[in-house]
UniProtKB/TrEMBL annotation:
Organism classification: Bacteria, Bacillati, Actinomycetota, Actinomycetes, Kitasatosporales
Transmembrane regions listed in the UniProt entry: none
Protein name: 5-carboxymethyl-2-hydroxymuconate Delta-isomerase
InterPro entries: 5-COMe_2-OHmuconate_Isoase, Tautomerase/MIF_sf
Pfam families assigned: CHMI (PF02962)
Amino acid sequence: MPHITVDYSDSLTDAFDRHGFARELHPLTADIARTAVGNCKTRFRRVEETYVAEGAPGHAVVHVEITLLPGRTDEVKTELSQAVLALLRTRVKPVPDVTVHASVDIRDLGPAYRKHVSA
């Protein structure tokens, strides 16, 4: 925890600095959510096909979902989502003739969440 999943359109593969994003995202998330950077885990999922609005070409999507242990206020979640969206905009370069739809969602992990780490 936090678990971070980033889905992004295939057309953004070369334009999205994923490693730079994660490098900055982890300390940002840890600071706002009041956790340790070492707890942050991010996975990126390239989406081969996205369909936006009426399906016109020239659209791409980046969606970040962060799940946290319960207990953060709505204000903290809002602050985090705004900060992550601002960071995201710095790590996705413009692509000619492509409109990028970026979004962030912050959720609580469910009561059945469990974790095991082994070396």
